[in-house]
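Z., the sequence and structure:
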Amino acid sequence: MLMRKHSESLAALAATLKLELETVMDQKEISWHQKACSQWISQGDRSTKFFYTLVIARRRANRISALQRDDGGWFSNANELMQLATTFYRDMFTSST
């Protein structure tokens, strides 16, 4: 019985510590984001190289290089991706609800 209470208290402590770690990691991520934004504001106006490097990095991060088909296969060709996106949105906006 003592071991059971000990195990339960350790499990509760582990859950509490995990939640606290996630909170700290979220705060750290927010801090880095704020630091990057302040750096953008302070250096972005003075350095066009800095500005364009960040823009290029953002474009790469936001680029869709492949989409998964309904059958599990992948589209990776630019023309296939464009056709898939066009068809998807055309069907979505023309379907009757």
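Helices lie at 2-44, 48-62, 78-94. DSSP finds three helices and two strands in the chain.

Let me know what you think.
H.
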